[in-house]
Amino acid sequence: MFNTNRQKIMDRTDILNQEWKTRRIQPVHIMTSVGSLRGTREVIPLKTLNAVASVPVMYSWSPLQQNFMVEDETVLHNIPYMGDEILDQDGTFIEELIKNYDGKVHGDRECGFINDEIFVELVSALSQYSDNEDDEEEEEHDFKVEKMELCTSDHHSVISALISLSVCLSVCLSVRYKELTEQQLPGALPPECTPNIDGPNARSVQREQSLHSFHTLFCRRCFKYDCFLHPFHATPNTYKRKNLENQVDTKPCGLDCYMYLVQVSQRSFIHSFIKYHSSVNCCSPSSVSVFTIFTSIKQMGGKNSSFVRGNSRCQTPVKMKLTGEAEAVEWSGAEASLFRVLIGTYYDNFCAIARLIGTKTCRQVYEFRVKESSIIARAPAEDEDTPPRKKKRKHRLWATHCRKIQLKKDGSSNHVYNYQPCDHPRQPCDSSCPCVTAQNFCEKFCQCSSECQNRFPGCRCKAQCNTKQCPCYLAVRECDPDLCLTCGAADHWDSKNVSCKNCSIQRGAKKHLLLAPSDVAGWGIFIKEPVQKNEFISEYCGEIISQDEADRRGKVYDKYMCSFLFNLNNDFVVDATRKGNKIRFANHSVNPNCYAKVMMVNGDHRIGIFAKRAIQTGEELFFDYR
Amino acid sequence: MSGASCKANGAVYPASSAMMNSVKKPKMEQIQADHELFLQAFEKPTQIYRFLRTRNLIAPVFLHRTLTFMSHRNGRTNAKRKTFKVDDMLQTVERMKGEVNLPLFIPSQNSENEQNSVSLEVLLVKVCHKKRKDVSCPIKQVPTGKKQVPLNPDSNQTKPGSHPSLLVSSNEFEPSNSHMVKSYSLLFRVSRTGRRDTNGLVNGEANENIDVTDTPSRKKRSSSHRDEGETTETFVAQMTVFDKNRRLQLLDGEYEVSMQGMEDSPVSKKRATWETILDGKRLPPFETFSQGPTLQFMLRWTGDASGKSTAPVAKPLATRNSESSSPMETRTSNHRAALMTVKESVSTDIQTRKEQVLCEPRQKLRIFYQFLYNNNTRQQTEARDDLHCPWCTLNCSKLYSLLKHLKLSHSRFIFNYVPHPKGARIDVSINECYDGSYVGNPQDIHSQPGFAFSRNGPVKRTAVTHILVCRPKRTKPSLSEFLESEDGELEQQRTYVSGHNRLYFHSDSCMPLRPQEMEEDSEDERDPEWLREKTATQLDEFTDVNEGEKEVMKLWNLHVMKYGFIADNQMNQAIMLFAENTGAHIIRRNLCRNFLLHLVSMHDFNLVSTATIDRAMARLRQIQEELPDIEEEQQDQTVVSAGACNGNAVTSTGGKQGKRTKSALTD
Lengths: 626, 667
What we know:
Structural class of chain A: alpha/beta
GO molecular function, one term (chain B): chromatin DNA binding
Largest sheet of chain B: 5 strands, mixed
Domain Polycomb protein VEFS-Box (chain B): 492-613
Number of helices of chain B: 16
Shape of chain B: elongated
Distance between the termini of chain B: 93 Å
Helix content of chain A: 25-40%
Strand content of chain B: 15-25%
GO cellular component, one term (chain B): ESC/E(Z) complex
Oligomer: heterodimer
Protein name (chain B): SUZ12 polycomb repressive complex 2 subunit b
Radius of gyration of chain A: 37 Å
Strand order of the largest sheet of chain B: 1-8-12-2-5
Radius of gyration of chain B: 41 Å
Largest interface: A-B, 115 and 108 residues
Family (chain B): Belongs to the VEFS (VRN2-EMF2-FIS2-SU(Z)12) family.
């Protein structure tokens, strides 16, 4: 039964195969049964592996969801290989390429045959084999090696001459080695480096020095230290504090609070002083700012019994010791530095400072403050040069802005310049302001006042911000979550459902894209879910390079017939060759289903890819490269 | 199924001379040029569909009877399932033992008729492989039997079961019996002794089984034998059972074969064409059936020798000549009744609807296929009298089913239905926007290795959810859906598998994307690993930033990258989250003061309020208290671990001496 069935299957398959052979379809193979009941011969199934369809060529690239600025390359990193025939035909191409880089090609030795790093490595490697010898001998070892190397390169007769040099050479080398290794000693940092405030070597330094690293490396636009996008960061000392929030706790923080030190003074005196002082200072009317006057008063009033409640957060034992005597407290370098940092922020809120320092009581802080009084700046007065804003003026501002945007649009200058926050203290943003000359709005990152005429005011839409009614949309800007407070751009950080449709790039609300071989050429990118017309699909990310660099790179890309360059503005180009995201695989079409739009997104130009029409599931994405 | 008979070779090649009848004196070149154009348009798709038909016969991908619009083809009920027992299978197998062979069973419809009968001899012809010495292929003829069959029987009178039948043993087809046999065919030889009067010659010429006898053209054909009235006239017809590729060509069914006189030797293979040439004139393909004698029979492959009694009754067959109206009438009515019993109410609905749409008085459908080509400027018409699909010979038995089938299975063409007084006209044109791309499950193409329907035993397949049952909302079947739409716009071709009919690849590894990975987007993470590493190394490169600062900066950068903060007003929230997430780490690593410096710096940039600093530091203290044994560790750390911290800094900065300085950045 089985065998006849089998026979039947075989026959059918034979028929099928014969037919398919003529049609060049791969034949079906029947696996012959091994355990055939009667069969004495062993039969082994033959398994054919079908050829796997090859995929288009892809050069490796790094995934990126945000642009990444890179510096110009001063040396040619590699000589591109494009097949022998091209090199044969066009030898001048490589020459020209090298000429672009002033003849510099990566891998050319910059210094001699041994540089500092290799030298140090060599000595430390050799020192492992000479345990009980001292440095001198190591140096000799080293010298011998040096000599040997020289020997191989130079002629033998030169050695004698070298040996005469050897004495001075060995001295030089040992000095150099010491120089190099001393830098590496633990804890020894270059002089310009502030010691770790949490470390044992913390020194007492000024506020600026403590915060220097944080101030200089922080990017106010990316909120990151040493960000990938903005090479130059403004330091905050020029930023103005808009809200003077140095509120001082009016209540003492505990039994031990320094306020009791102060409160013994005659009230009348204090009040008169406060009156005088508040006219200048605008501080909250508290007694603390008057310490300079009362430095001599170290007496404590006997009213402590009424203030016994209150939970002490100070770390000192709750034992009453409210004598007027200043305790002799040791202030470590770290604590002193920290105090100076905090005093610049909290001013005279000693309770808060003490809380933050953690190891000192407010009283100790207060006393230290008294000691340091000469060097510490007081709370800054309110900025005089900005008059308080007026409601009416703001309205007028708005109207002029809308007009201005329209004008800017109509002027249709094709040149779009990169935005750089302006910083010209005490000068309004006029024709000399870089923002104005570049025809950019001033952003929240600019150092000018928030009342600046050139500031973009944001929108007040209650709709989706996807029509020209929205000033942001009109100005080809995404809504700024710090300016546009009504449209929803500043809400719902967690969800993707934002009422404002004009903040997709900044939120990275891209669509899921899928990679597959294109129907047109090479790889293509396909959309997973259907999208509506004008919906945001993805940001075209890549390296941000200068126009010059783009010219140099473009020469190579043109030769490869494959370019991922995308003009961002007059200053920069996005290159998705090395770093990018999946949208880089979108192909060119004269009748595309997507379009690209360069938008100003929180001070950065970014490229958004949007749907030109409704796109169905699984469609390949195209946009017009031109 | 239907009363209409299958053509012997089932070949209806649309390229056959359709224009011939209309043009009186066609110039040869013109015809040829026109023919070329016609072929150009229709040849390729037709070939494809013919190939697919054959493949589907051998290895069906699906069964037509399972289609909704073909439900009438499903003559089986599942009533037996209720009483089914597994043991029954054994019984069936037992019974089948010994009768595994498949004898060829030919019940001929023709019953003994005392008035007029002819003798029919059926021979099995085996064409053997040519040996080297042979000039032509050796042929073996095996007689299988001889029967008297009635001549021109009255179809109404024939009784079921009364037809003579012949049985061809399947042994004859066993390959073991004759290895050399290349192909098998059945040779029908009908002989009739010429002892008849002239009347018989005039009236009932030697046409087997033709209901209508008085066709002048046929008489002309046979008149040549009139003189030799005494001799035996012999007509032969040959049908291939297995062709030389061992493909079975004769399937179960009712056949009508046109016979040819013994004298005109059967058309030699070399001259074989699709067209029939008679007296130097080409005939349309079906004309032969009205030109010469024909033989009707029913063929059944049977696995059961005793099936004779249960063999289905040969139904009276219809002729293609519309003159014979009375038998036709009965046929159609019978047919319809049969349909109604099988089908449910919906299909009867179709039936009646169809009747309304069509012209009522007509008994029989004639379907005109009008082939439009050369930018719809030219046309050829071909008529068929049955509801078989011209491409795959599938009997659709209903006009609606036929149209639906054409539209769905032969989408390389566009079919438009036009009602016609005699039946239906179907305009056939080439579908210019035919999208031949694969619309099945992409995983089926690419699942490694190879085949979706492997015959090689088990194949590892990717786990995919296939929709096995889908009950979409169906509109009531109506012929109007095949009418050409007015607005001219072709109805949007629905893709049946939505969108993703291709295999996707991972953008990083170029490996095929498995269906279970479809949902995860490689771009969902805002901070790819290399970028996280990059930000750390970039900070490490600074020589004038101390290790505590670096560590806090790195932590903060990773935090920002992870959450992608974009607005100033998110910063307070971000700081609190930072304290929450990394607080424990900061305490363990003894970085509290650096953390505080970071907060103050943020405050200096006017991004956070002092209240946030207070809250964040309070949270940190709280975490510190919650941490077990942190106090002791803290004690140790202040003494010992600071060194460890520095030691760590050395390892991180050691290799990157003097790369960058922060002061350079501000210049």
